[in-house]
Amino acid sequence: MNILEFLISPAEASRRTGPNDRIVFSSRVRLARNLKSHPFPGHAKKADRIKAYEILFPAIRSLPQMGPEPFAESLEKLTPLDKQILVERHLVSREHAAKGAGSGLILNREETLSVMINEEDHLRMQSLRPGLQLRQAWLSIDAVDSDLETRLDISFSEKYGYLTACPTNLGTGIRVSAMLHLPGLVLGEQINQIIQAVNKLGLAVRGLYGEGTEALGNIFQVSNQMTLGEAENEIVERINKVLLQLVEHEENARQSLLEKKPKVLFNHIGRAYGVLANAHTVSSKETMNLLSLLRLGVDIGMFAQTPKALVDELFLISQPAHLQLNHPDREKLAAEDRDIFRADLLRGRMKSVPTPQEPPARSSETAV
Amino acid sequence: MNILEFLISPAEASRRTGPNDRIVFSSRVRLARNLKSHPFPGHAKKADRIKAYEILFPAIRSLPQMGPEPFAESLEKLTPLDKQILVERHLVSREHAAKGAGSGLILNREETLSVMINEEDHLRMQSLRPGLQLRQAWLSIDAVDSDLETRLDISFSEKYGYLTACPTNLGTGIRVSAMLHLPGLVLGEQINQIIQAVNKLGLAVRGLYGEGTEALGNIFQVSNQMTLGEAENEIVERINKVLLQLVEHEENARQSLLEKKPKVLFNHIGRAYGVLANAHTVSSKETMNLLSLLRLGVDIGMFAQTPKALVDELFLISQPAHLQLNHPDREKLAAEDRDIFRADLLRGRMKSVPTPQEPPARSSETAV
């Protein structure tokens, strides 16, 4: 099965909506699980890894939650471009994309359920939802997990809980995370303060592709650090509460910019629009930052007729692998030509986006 | 007489054309002259300066070359804004604009002839022309000078020629200069090499407002350094020749960019267009650099329906004093508000400029 034919289109993916999706792009709950009496993938010999794989692969593929026709494949069957596409969709980790034979991916049609076999742990199972839907994501992955326990012999200690390759996942093996778009807090220069406060609550704040990556496009991933000593639903509820507060902080920051520095705000958004619509070469990194401002402009009403889905689609298709996929000569595309092709694509798509207008003032205080 | 009512409009001024005006914005020949037996303005006591002024003012005003109704005024009658407007039009020097009582300006209706009284010398007389017209400018100011010598007792030494306050003007008292727009040489990174070569020919290369100023908007002033030991028309011919070479170098640089780095060129011009059309606050300095790229875009055919006069008008009216002049609350305009007003004005005017298009390729080699 070809993963590129399996995946839903970027346009369709971008039309999905969820609660608070002005600010929360997506919610994710991931569980780490391992088979009893099989060495962890990082310590296993090839034969052991394949033995575990052969137990796990059919068990996961036949899970009712995966639907009748999931994508199920060994990673050696995927090209580097296929893997990079999956990373850009957040369906596999960057670490998993580097793996080959003995590692695998099983993904449902809706792309809401993704299971990595032989990543750092035997199983990394994640449920993904648009907007702020941590509870729904948790219930969904919990159902998968319960079902799986009846089929597999999972490594579990009465004292420590689920055993994992890395002690940071020990206990519940849960990672609850959300992707937040926080341009208001960045432009309002409150983001560092907010990150510190969130860290003090025991949550990590990272960039777009997780640990060690930059917060391109003002997109931040917030997730739990601790997996031990707290029940899964408590972790979910706690993070949900923090995320609702972050949403409120971001909304306040945007409102404050609109009231106190409207021209600075319109200037950032207008310039971003101007560059996106007229550049002839643009890097992936710059594009993310420009699209962040365009999305903010859509959110605050500067582009009355432009749906957020268009911007979200541009976020997706301007990333390196998605871009390459759209190029007629995809295999031989050099980085320099990719930047030119990205600009061509953006100029073309931006033709349907009208010149930004100052949003209607909410009160007399918003006038300059 | 009010200088602001006297001056021709920026739109009219920008419609003027001359030879090679794709690259040479304007040509200027200036003569420094002093009265015999009167101390130079910088060394004169107030009474002496006024005595010289009272001889010079009526003599200049009544020159036939000044026409029937020149602008003729003591600088104390001009407001700081009036003076800054004159500096931005290159009709008085920045040094002269700082002067008051005892200094004056006489300007003909066409703004091609401007005489400063009691600048560094008793007389600084200049002829200005659009495009590359050094000979015409020289003939025009020479006629003024010859006429003036019949009316005034000019300080002249058989050994040194015309005596001037600063020895750098001694001899002919002539300064021949042109304002060149050299974005091709700047983008092609050849400008420093060119400046060095021009310096070796005994010519100075300066920024937009003369000595010690920055080359904003890729605009460079080229002028003679030596005023001694060479006849005026020889200096004019020599500089004219150098300027023609510079024009050729700039045309070659543009052609080379079009052939070898078209995307880089279109990218600079496209982005400049995008920012000019969409910024909500923009400094004078950034504006000059953006307009330089817009002008280059017009020159190479990326804006088929846009005349160069529009860009040249924007160059003029986006400068601080001209901008302030157009503001309803001109006296109280803070720098921050000026940048917002400038952006408003540019966005408004840029509505008539269509999205840039890649120019038609001249040969198959120009394709990327």
Description:
2 copies of one chain form a homodimer. By secondary structure, chain A is an alpha+beta fold. Chain A has 2 domains: 3-253, Creatine Kinase, Chain A, domain 2, CATH 3.30.590.10; 261-350, no CATH class. The first copy, chain A, has 14 helices and 10 strands. Chain A has helices at 3-6, 10-15, 46-61, 80-88, 94-97, 134-149, 183-187, 191-200, 232-260, 262-278, 284-299, 308-317, 320-326, 335-350; strands at 24-33, 71-74, 104-107, 113-117, 123-130, 156-157, 161-162, 174-181, 203-206, 219-224. The longest helix of chain A is centred in the C-terminal third of the chain and has 29 residues, at 232-260. The first copy, chain A, is globular and about 65 Å long. The A-B interface holds A 263-264, 266-267, 270-271, 273-281, 340, 343, 347, 355-356, 368 and B 263-264, 266-267, 270-271, 273-282, 340, 343, 347, 355-356, 368.
- In the CATH scheme, what's the topology name of the largest domain in chain A? Creatine Kinase, Chain A, domain 2
* CATH level-4 homologous superfamily of the largest domain in chain A: Glutamine synthetase/guanido kinase, catalytic domain
The whole-number mean of residue pLDDT values of chain A reads 93
**Overall helicity of chain A:** 40-55%
Residue share in β-strands of chain A: 5-15%
How many beta strands in the DSSP annotation of chain A?
A: 10
Give the tags.
homodimer; eight-stranded antiparallel β-sheet; 368 residues; 2 domains; alpha+beta; globular; Creatine Kinase, Chain A, domain 2; two-stranded antiparallel sheet
Fold blueprint:
2 copies of one chain form a homodimer.
Chain A: H1 3-6, H2 10-15, E1 24-33, H3 46-61, E2 71-74, H4 80-88, H5 94-97, E3 104-107, E4 113-117, E5 123-130, H6 134-149, E6 156-157, E7 161-162, E8 174-181, H7 183-187, H8 191-200, E9 203-206, E10 219-224, H9 232-260, H10 262-278, H11 284-299, H12 308-317, H13 320-326, H14 335-350
Antiparallel strand pairs in A: 1-5, 1-8, 2-3, 3-4, 4-5, 6-7, 8-10, 9-10
Helix pairs in contact in A: 4-13, 9-10, 10-11, 10-14, 11-12
